[in-house]
Amino acid sequence: MLIAEIFRLAFASLTANKLRSSLTVLGIAVGVFSVIGVMTLINGMRGSIESGLNVLGANSFQINKFPPISFNDWNRFRNRRDVTYAVANRFKDLMGDSAKVNLQIGRGGMTVVVRDRKTNPNVRLVGTDENYVTAFNYDVVAGRNLGADDVEYGRPVCLLGSDVIQRIFPDEEALGKMVRINGQNYTVVGLLAPKGTSFGGNPDNLVVTPISRFLAVYGRAYRSISMNVQAPSQAEMAATQEKAVGMMRLVRGLHPEDGNDFEVFSNESLIEAFNKIADVVAAGALIISAIALLASGVGVMNIMLVSVTERTKEIGIRKSIGAKKKSIMLQFLAEAVALSLIGGVAGVAVGVGGGNTAAYFMNTAITFPWLWAGIGLFVCGGIGVVFGLYPAWKAASLDPIEALRYE
User: Which of left, alpha, beta for 109 (phi over 0: left; psi -120 to 50: alpha)?
Assistant: First the structure.
């Protein structure tokens, strides 16, 4: 038999049993989808990780009451003492000129109002100081930055993010105008350049005001200040971080035997923490997919054995008119591999689509995991061969006389 004829017969047999073939394909597709969907999303997130998590300025690290990512011991972190404004200011003074220290605290869900125009109630109000723009890689495109005097005297001034500007000042100059947030008036003294959305967040949907003003309006109780420390250069990063930890322990009043009751993290530590989580998720997806594909492989074998039984007489006729053993075996192997590869292609397509849909809503990169798609199809082909080998061998080994008698 010609190879083309063998494969034509194999596909004809598959289309003759549409329901059975569809169920087998579905089982394999689910197994492939589980890993391809997760890998597509993770690859997109990895592609956006440096831009999405690179929220700090160059040579910077952050000091906070809480770790950036945590899945356990949350009560322990919550029960830590807050980093008060007085403690944060003392830390900033002790660091002096050795590093640029920024203090910040935020509050989400705010609405910015100008006359009859207002934003959605999702604006973030950030109380901070004159170093915020540098610490978080913003550019002031018009007006001025917050000044040390603004912070010292708690002036009701603010900087607007580009999304807020477009919403409430679409056709007019915003500088010098007054906006109202939660019943408080602020004069616009500066406009921030757009940064673009990334990693599920929108850094342009914010209003920046002096931290002293923020605390005067919303109170200092149960408020913990975050601090960004920027070293003069990458070469001095380690020494600056070591000094910052020492100064922080001093202002917190910790004894030598006490552990740190604060967290220090940088861009690198954020990326490392994300990669650890991504690796765990990927491993879980692989385990789930392996179990699903194993079950699907058993299903392929069972269906092929049923097919051999149903087509015993057909096999006998073919062997009696000269079909070779290897041709029969190749036909049934082709059916098993075709079932597996069709399921694999369907799983890859749905997985890539589902993963990229999730990536779109999370504002991460849209990707196609070529490597994992190739691995998935290769594995599916292997499943077809491994689990189709025994039914194919059984079909090829049938005695043509006995097969012709089969009813």
Answer: left
